[in-house]
Automatic annotation (TrEMBL), chain A:
The keyword Transcription regulation does not apply. Residues 105-297 form the ABC transmembrane type-1 domain. One of its GO terms (biological process) is transmembrane transport. Keywords: Cell membrane, Membrane, Transmembrane, Transmembrane helix, Transport. This is Carbohydrate ABC transporter permease. The chain crosses the membrane at residues 42-63, 104-129, 141-164, 176-196, 217-239, 275-297. Residues 8-18 have a biased composition (Low complexity).
From TrEMBL, chain B:
It comes from the Bacteria. This is Carbohydrate ABC transporter substrate-binding protein. SUPFAM superfamilies: Periplasmic binding protein-like II (SSF53850). InterPro entries: Bact_solute-bd_prot1, SBP. Residues 260-314 are annotated as: Disordered. Pfam families: SBP_bac_1.
Length: 311, 445
């Protein structure tokens, strides 16, 4: 078949409706219009830079602290101390007897990649069913799926643990990964349903005339057109999984199977001696994949959210 | 277009069948222990899981002890599970609910009740009677902190922590005030704060605001010879707590303590505390915080020295109580003899004591403690910490039997109620009433 269609793209929304002709725009700062565009730009950028600095300061402080000796981490609120060292990076990376951050990064990456694959496949299939197929109890089932969003995680914590323990899955990555292949993330199902519903159904009809069944329509028509929604789901799954602590803490008990978030937590303990320098050094490194993925996928993120009606 | 229609009945049936299978499988059965196993007797072989709390440095020491045990018993594998204190107990509660606690589980006296109330632990008394676990070198008063409400021993106390008054000696000298004398009481403590405040530089209060710290209040109650708990209810009177919080409000009103806002913003770890950065003269902190606090002071490069003192006493004697941590064997453990051997090794083997070096409270075995105090390589600060423990034990400290839910209910309600007072949201009597209602209700469940 040759279904070359493009996703419906909406233009940028105009906030506050169309401007009335002849009415001067209200100035951003002050009651009187600023005459010099240069001055206005200067003020605007200054405010933005100051706000950005304030928001980034904790991160910058963390980076600065990671370069200070361990006993000088808390001696200043400034960005740099008198002594700068990379020892925290070396000590933190090698960790202790059973701690090694290369292992933790590998574990986190494995779980994250599998979670993304699972979520994209399972949620897209489920979303296709809810958006395109007709079957009995469809609305009830969809309401049930969406209803799981209202269920607090703590309610299912113990039953899930008992179940996975019975299956012998504790201390393996299975409890963290297998549910992703069973379309358990209702948010992504909802996001994709919204997106797929916006695709013209005439594309399905055209594909069907060309001989496609449901699988062909899903794989050759719907999926290629849903890349923005898939990208958004992938990005959110990446961030959620990479930063998840409770799940790995419960199910990955032995240090060999720890993720980055567990490795970071192991530097701290309220009842003993903590290693803040190593913690800040490894925290800095652990941000790199998240930032990198976000920068790479932010265009898809914006498109996915804008075109699925989620705000 | 014409939408496709799927047959859903077979799928629903399959789903229901799966659900029933899963539900029928829930509920882990407990191992059927023989009489010998319950006495800790049998082959020391196979694998056991061992869990504890701590940070990376403590993990290294703990792993080293577990390695020694494995070397001592070829064929035994100790699988290790560590987490920091707060998250450790979150996980342990879930593991307990799923009857999947590690064979050797570290507990603290304050959390023991949560697990004895669920009948999740094996009593250790038969293992002691059979000789599988030797407790002859652990003082009776310390051993008793591992007992449940029924008087049986459920936790072998291996480390004893205590709270201490940390005082910045250098600042005290500069303020021209002498440290409180041994046996000082609460009046002496407040007098010390007042005298110090007169000579301290502006912006450095004499103490951190600790009216909401449960351990400080426990010292107050013990010093008066009162009881913290009566079964699953509060054992002290409303009037006593009113008196205590009014004392702290006087301290705050006189400017002897830092502000409630500053107090609320303070990071919990000792390294990042105000007393560690020299921003307050004194504070109540765990005794083993002396080393990390001095470490941060050293990092300031001003040569300030920190010292630790017992908490204030009262008419009934010393206020200090011991907060022990120790090892337990849960009912779901299928390898009790090996777990019992591990407990015995941890508590009595000299190599174990030397390696762990009282990292989580002073070692409770007096012989191992003596070895550490005699060790010329043990840092001076650590020796001072252990010496203070010896002093507290010598004064026969009271034992607090913490009810189930102590940490989750009592501690959070106590701190919150005092913060309401300090921030001016409630009067002291109102906050005391709120606290009593919340704590008694929560502890009774």
């Amino acid at each position: 078949m040759s279904a070359h269609a493009t996703a419906p793209v909406r233009g940028p929304r105009q906030v506050g409706g169309p401007r009335r002709p002849g009415r001067p725009r209200r100035p951003l700062f002050g009651n009187r219009p600023t005459r010099s565009p240069l001055l206005r730009a200067l003020v605007k950028h200054s405010v933005m830079i100051i706000t950005l600095t304030l928001m980034l300061y904790p991160l910058l402080w963390m980076f600065g602290a990671s370069l200070r000796p361990d006993n000088q981490v808390f001696t200043t609120l400034g960005l740099w101390g008198s002594d700068l060292t990379l020892d925290n990076y070396a000590a933190g990376w090698s960790g202790g007897d059973q701690l090694n951050f290369s292992r933790f990064f590998l574990n986190s990456l494995t779980i994250t990649v599998l979670s993304i694959v699972g979520n994209l496949l399972a949620c897209a299939l489920t979303a296709y069913a809810f958006a395109r197929l007709e079957f009995r109890f469809k609305k009830t089932l969809f309401a049930l799926v969406i209803g799981t969003l209202l269920l607090p995680y703590h309610v299912t914590l113990v039953p899930q643990y008992i179940l996975f323990n019975q299956l012998g899955w504790v201390n393996t990555i299975l409890p963290l990964v297998v549910p992703k292949f069973l379309a358990t993330d209702a948010f992504f199902i909802f996001l994709m349903v919204q997106f797929i519903r916006a695709l013209p159904s005439s594309l399905d009809d055209a594909a069907r005339i060309d001989g496609c069944g449901h699988w062909g329509i899903f794989w050759r028509v719907v999926m290629p057109l849903s890349i923005p929604a898939l990208g958004t789901s992938a990005l959110f799954t990446f961030i959620n999984t990479w930063n998840d602590f409770l799940g790995p803490m419960l199910y990955l008990t032995e240090p060999d199977s720890w993720t980055v978030s567990q490795g970071l937590a192991s530097f701290l303990d309220a009842t003993g001696q903590s290693a803040y320098g190593s913690l800040f050094a490894m925290s800095t490194l652990s941000l790199v994949p998240v930032l990198g993925f976000f920068v790479a996928a932010q265009k898809l993120l914006v498109e996915g959210i804008a075109t699925s009606g989620l705000k | 277009m014409a939408h496709a229609t799927l047959r859903t009945r077979p799928l629903l049936g399959l789903g229901l069948g799966l659900l029933m299978t899963v539900l029928a499988g829930c509920g882990q059965s407990l191992p059927d222990h023989s009489a010998d196993e319950l006495r800790g007797r049998g082959d020391i072989a196979g694998g056991i899981r061992f869990s504890w709390w701590g940070s990376a440095s403590r993990n290294d020491r703990t792993n080293a002890v577990a390695d020694l045990f494995e070397a001592e018993h070829p064929g035994v594998e100790v699988r290790r599970e560590a987490a920091d204190f707060g998250n450790y107990f979150k996980r342990l509660n879930v593991q307990g609910a799923g009857r999947n606690m590690p064979c050797v589980t570290q507990l603290q006296a304050r959390t023991l009740g949560d697990f004895t109330a669920r009948d999740a632990l094996l009593p250790l008394d038969p293992m002691i009677e059979s000789g599988a676990i030797d407790v002859s070198d652990i003082p009776e008063a310390v051993l008793d902190t591992g007992r449940g409400e029924d008087g049986r021993l459920y936790m072998l106390p291996t480390g004893a922590a205590y709270d201490a008054l940390m005082v910045n000696e250098t600042l005290a000298e500069e303020a021209g005030v002498a440290l409180p004398e041994p046996g000082y009481d609460w009046d002496d403590y407040v007098t010390f704060l007042r005298d110090a405040a007169e000579g301290l530089p502006d912006g450095i209060p004499a103490t951190a605001l600790r009216g909401g710290l449960p351990n400080f209040f426990i010292a107050y109650v013990q010093g008066l010879g009162e009881h913290m708990f009566d079964g699953n209810q509060l054992g002290f009177s409303r009037e006593l707590l009113v008196e205590y919080w009014e004392m702290w409000e006087e301290i705050r009103a006189e400017g002897l303590a830092n502000s409630p806002a500053a107090n609320a913003e303070e990071p919990p770890s000792p390294e990042a505390s105000y007393v560690a950065s020299g921003d307050v003269l004194s504070d109540n902190r765990p005794g083993n915080a002396l080393t990390p606090i001095q470490g941060t002071l050293d990092g300031q490069g001003e040569g300030q020295r920190m010292t630790s003192l017992p908490l204030p006493s009262g008419p009934a004697g010393q206020g200090n109580v011991l907060i022990t941590s120790g090892l337990s064997i849960p009912r779901n453990c299928a390898n009790v003899p090996t777990a019992a051997a591990f407990l015995d090794f941890w508590a009595n083997d000299p190599r174990s004591g030397d390696t762990y070096a009282s990292d989580n409270g002073a070692v409770t075995n007096t012989e191992l403690l003596r070895r550490q105090l005699d060790d010329p390589e043990l840092p001076d600060l650590k020796k001072r910490e252990l010496a203070l423990y010896q002093r507290i034990v010598a004064d026969d400290p009271s034992i607090v039997l913490y009810p189930p839910g102590y940490l989750a209910v009592f501690e959070s309600a106590f701190t919150r109620a005092y913060e309401d007072v300090a921030f001016g949201n409630q009067t002291v009597p109102e906050a005391v009433d709120t606290f009593f209602a919340e704590a008694n209700d929560g502890l009774a469940r």
